[in-house]
Structures are given as C-alpha cells and as structure tokens.
Amino acid sequence: MTDVLRNDFGTVQQAAFRPWKPWRNGVLAAASWGTAAAVTYLLPDVINWNATGLFATIVAGIALLLLALAFVVPLYDKRTKTLQHYGPWLVAIGVWFAVWELLTAKLGWLPKPFFSPPQGLLNVYITDWERLLVCVGYTARLWSLGFFSGIAVGFVAGVALGWSKSFAYWGMPVLKLIGPVPASAWIPCTFFIFPSTFQASIFLVALASGIPVAILTAAGVGQVNRAYYDVARTLGASTSYLIFKVAVPASLPNVFVGLFMALYYSFAVLVVAEMLGAKFGLGWYLQFNTAYSAYANVYAALIIMALICAGLVRLLFVLRDRLLNWQKGIL
To answer: What is the pTM assigned to this prediction?
Structure first.
C-alpha cells in the first residue's frame, strides 16, 4: 500500500513540475510578423507608397502581441483552444505579408498599378473610408432585398415542387430551363420589365439566390421517408401539419445547402447587378476604379466583400447548427 501511494505521489510531482514551454506556433507567428515589419520598414521602396511606416508599426505591434501570447497561452491551455487551432494560419499570414511586401514594394517584380503592396490597401482604407462605408451601405440594401426575397420565393416554390406532383409537372421543367442560365444573361429582359435599374438589380440577385434554394428544397421534400407521413396520418394529421411539421423540418438539411449556394451566387451576381446604373455600391466602386486603373482601391473593395461574405457564411453555419441541433447523431 505504501509503495502504491509513493508511486501516485511521484506521478503527481512529475505533473506538477513538468517543464513549461512557450506556445511554439505563437513564437513562429511573432517571428514571421516581425520579419514582415522589418522588411516593410528597413528595405527601400521601388516606388514611394503612402502609409508604409504606419503599416510597419501595425505589423510590429501584432508581432509583439503574438510574442506575449506565446508565453500566456500555455498558462490557459483549455481556454485558448481556438487561438491555438489558428496558430499555423497566423504564421502563414505573417510569411505572406513579408513575401507580398518583397514582390511588390521592395523588388517591384509585381509592378504598379496592377499590383499593390499591403500599405497601398491600408492607404485606401485611410483616405477613402467614407466612400467605402457609403458603398457598403448601398450594397447591403441591394443584397438584403434581393437575397431575402429570392430565398423566400425559392423556399415556397421548392416546397410546392416537392409536395405537389401536378405543380412539379409544370414547374420543374421551367426551373430546369431557367436554372442553368446565368442571372446576368437576363439583363436585357430586366430593362424592359422593371421601371428602374434598382428594381432590375434586386431581381437579378433574387433570381441567383432563389433558384438553388428552390431546387434543393424540392429535392429535400421529395426525399422525406414516406413512413413519416404514414405515421402522422395514422395519428390524424392534416395536410398542413404534414407539410409544416413533417416535410419542411425533414428537408432542412437540403434547404441549408441551398442557402449556402444562394449566398455565394448572390455575391457573384452582385457586382454585375450594381453595374446597371448604380450610383454607389461595392460593385460600382469596383467598376469605377477599374476604369481609372486604381487597382489598390479595387483590391481593397474585394477584401471587404470577401470579409462580409465570410461573416455571413459563419452566421449561416451558426443558424444551421442551432436549428438542426435535434438531428445530431441522426445525420
């Protein structure tokens, strides 16, 4: 018994006095970001770029923060799992900044105006943030109206197509005919049908969003196990109950796949939609600055669009996980 207690005590001692090590990826990330800051500040630019010193200061500050986290993270190992998961990405981003800086501002292998160093994009955000903010607002309005109206109509049409054989007989061939056609191909028709270019733009975004939702919702409703309907009918369920309490919940996985596709398609057509006489918007901003070869502004706007789309995708994942929480272990 004494030997057993002694062995247990020795094990506890080894765990208590385990040698402490800093977070390896944190140290590497701090080194990569520090290298990017040194390259930006110390090496001369081929062409003078604004905000070089500011960018170097920001990157150096992030490098110091990562170095501090490298020593703090091991003390809170369980609370920093997410940060540790993205450690390799933090290293890669620092390396990317250093390489990007070398190829553009320092060596000029990717020349101006077609390519811009990171401080060129930072300068755009500093000098043109007001116009960018207005464009984001206009784009948010157009996208919201088009996307939500499109998925609403697409969802209703998909449920009808999946539930009613007679509706599917007439509707599915039309949907298969329209579906493969890019939304931008309907621009000549929209000019004739809609009284304003803004309404035409909303229609294009709605069309790009609604078709994948309709197709996948119809497929989801059509794939519901018939045994579910039989059991519900045995218990006296009405037709509306079968649709809203059986068919729709069972088809939600397919619906969310359609929503993800609709989100990406809507952003793909958004740039084209905002070219139809829009006065502001990120699509208009891209077209306007491309005409003047202001590619730094173009890249800055593209990054904003990518971040907005990524944020919406993340929100959609959260919504899907909450609504389909009851299906864990089944799917």
So the answer is: 0.80
